Amino acid sequence: MDVSDRYVLSLAYGLVILCFMAGTLWGFAAHRSDAFGYGASVIPAILAFGLLTDHVLSLGLGTVTRHWLLIALFVGLLPLDHWMQKQHLAPPWWLSLRLSITAVVLACLIFVGLQPIP
């Protein structure tokens, strides 16, 4: 497997994880009729869709650029998790779990992102 394949595989797996994490936020928001919570929980998945492949919504961004934007989206989910917890929508242990998961995901994505492409 060459480095560009690793980028594509890492991007695809990362997008699945990001959408799963955003989906849990939607589940938390469903406990209360709050337009902000619903919107904030679906926007990351919609943005992630734009990073999926080379299609019209990706705006011609290359694989490496999409990979680093995915990293930014993971970081961007953390304030939403914090907000959900402050609103008592997420369980008390949620944010510590998310910080651990995000640290592992970011370490993996950054490791791949730092690999030079021949």
UniProtKB/TrEMBL annotation:
The keyword Zinc does not apply. InterPro entries: DUF3429. The keyword Membrane applies. Pfam families: DUF3429 (PF11911). The chain crosses the membrane at residues 7-29, 35-52, 59-80, 92-114. Keywords: Membrane, Transmembrane, Transmembrane helix. This is DUF3429 domain-containing protein.
